[in-house]
Amino acid sequence: MSAGTRKVAVVPHMLRDQPFAARFREDLVAALADHPEVELEIADPEADPVVQVRLLESFLAQGVSALVVDPLDPALLRNALAAYRDAGVPVIALDNDPGDPSLYRSLILADNRQFGRKMGEFFAEVSGGQADLVEIRGMPTTSGAQDRSAGFREAIANHPGIRVVESLVGNWLYSRAREAFAQALARLPRLDGVFAQNDEMARGAWDAAAEVGRAEELLITGIDALRGEHGLQLVIQGKLGATLINPPPGRAAALALLAVLDGEPVMKRTLLQTSMFRSNERIRAWQAARHR
Questions:
Q1: 8-state DSSP, 127
Q2: CA 51 to CA 43: how far, in whole Å?
Q3: Which pLDDT value is given to residue 231?
């Protein structure tokens, strides 16, 4: 590390097989392209909270100037984050709330409870208040998965005809969601839809259903709405009935990072905004199929 260079540790939840995390990394690197004094050290814990703790401990021992982290298990990370606080190393937390505001300088995330509520309201609207659904969750230890699930249940609470008949764990991954949903389909001869907590798991659910000839009977939704084949294209193709924009926090993280490195004030909590993309054609086809 050359004189004047400040090394920053970046530890997301996972990078492999994660279009959302890949987009975050691209945006972060691009936003810092004109700041050669900031040297990013990006490490992938591969969705393992224990590995993430070890990475944080290792980076602190190396003397990094700041940490950008997406906490996989806030309870498990508490001591490691407290060590950064006690050492005076600023932490930018992303996507998942560590719980204790003293553990981070800035928290940047989407309103995950709102995501859940919006999807619950969507299913209530398009189903007429009658639907049997499967939920596919992200990593259960993350506040993102917990809040999306809680918000969804809040929205359907006044619609007793909407039932979550199974809640599966997909860990945000296509392969895990596809396998879990394929097994669920074998147990559920009648099903109306799927609330998947991200587009990768929604894609896995659609492929599992298509493989057994049941994709047309299901209305499947996701969250992220990234550009390309793993996001908005799924709605355009009519595979997903809807998805919500989950803005990758890379650029916001870069701005917060530059501020804390320069000793400037920074927003303690930043909520990124969302909107919904719908496939009205897919919704109408699903509604028509239900009434045959």
A1: H
A2: 10
A3: 80
* Adjacent-strand bridge partners of 193: 133, 219
Rounded to whole angstroms, the Cα distance separating 189 from 168 reads 17
Nearest CA to 162 out of 126, 197, 137, 189 is that of: 126
Q: Which residues are CB-contacts of 159 (< 8 A; sequence separation ≥ 6)?
A: 124, 129
pLDDT tens-digit map of 78-121? 999 999 999 999 999 999 899 999 999 999 999 999 999 999 99
Q: Are 225 and 246 in contact (CB under 8 A)?
A: yes
Contact 8, 29 (CB under 8 A): no
User: Is the pTM value of this prediction over 0.85?
Assistant: yes
Residues 211 and 267 in one domain: no
Cα–Cα distance between 265 and 97 in angstroms, integer?
Answer: 20
Backbone φ/ψ region at 17: left (φ over 0), alpha (ψ -120 to 50), beta:
left
DSSP per-residue codes, 157-217: TT-TTEEEEEEEE-TT-HHHHHHHHHHHHHH-SS--EEEESSHHHHHHHHHHHHHTT-GGG
Domain range for residue 188? 112-246+277-290
The CA distance from 251 to 20, in Å, is: 13
pLDDT (average), residues 18-36: 93
pLDDT tens for each residue of 216-235: 999 999 999 988 777 889 99
End-to-end CA distance of the chain: 67
Domains held by the chain: number: 2
For residue range 160-175, list pLDDT tens digits in order.
999 999 999 999 999 9
Residue 112 contacts residue 143 (beta carbons within 8 Å) = yes
Same domain? For 258 and 233 the reply is: no
Tokens read off for 233: 């294209």
Chain length of the chain: 292
